[in-house]
Description:
By secondary structure, the protein is of the alpha+beta class. It starts with a strand and ends with a helix. The chain has helices spanning 26-33, 44-77, 98-107, 155-159; strands spanning 4-8, 21-24, 39-41, 80-84, 91-96, 123-125, 127-136, 139-149. A hairpin with a 2-residue loop joins strand 7 (127-136) and strand 8 (139-149). It has two domains: 4-68, Ribosomal Protein L9, domain 1 (3-Layer(aba) Sandwich); 74-159, Ribosomal protein L9, C-terminal domain (Ribosomal Protein L9, domain 2). 14% of the residues are buried. It has a three-stranded antiparallel sheet. It has a three-stranded mixed sheet with strand order 4-8-7. A two-stranded antiparallel sheet has the order 5-6.
Amino acid sequence: xxxxxxxxxxxxxxxxxxxxxxxxxxxxxxxxxxxxxxxxxxxxxxxxxxxxxxxxxxxxxxxxxxxxxxxxxxxxxxxxxxxxxxxxxxxxxxxxxxxxxxxxxxxxxxxxxxxxxxxxxxxxxxxxxxxxxxxxxxxxxxxxxxxxxxxxxxxxxxxx
Length: 160
């Protein structure tokens, strides 16, 4: 299948950094990258424009890095806890997902897009977990999340 060359206007996780020329499938470019403003087609004029705007991109990234450093410090200082239903062996009936973690963070006054929360797999056990939040390609905050049992494991047996 044919590839389309595009210039990334901002960092796209798993694809490339702002200002790079990459090849992607036409549907990905047409349906996501171009409408979202994350990329432009790599035409001759586009490449010249990119060279002109590289300085502006560098300044924008430097400004974002300063903001991300403050957000990282704030995130790492948060004490997050969630209470969930657990089964006999301390396993969760469901799981704690990135959306729930984003809601917990928002309740503390920090708005984070759930896609920036880098959970490999949903959390399925009670305990303390370290959750990475990718604010920028070079700035990753590590949250501490305490998952506790809403119903302690022996409670159901005591009721019977």
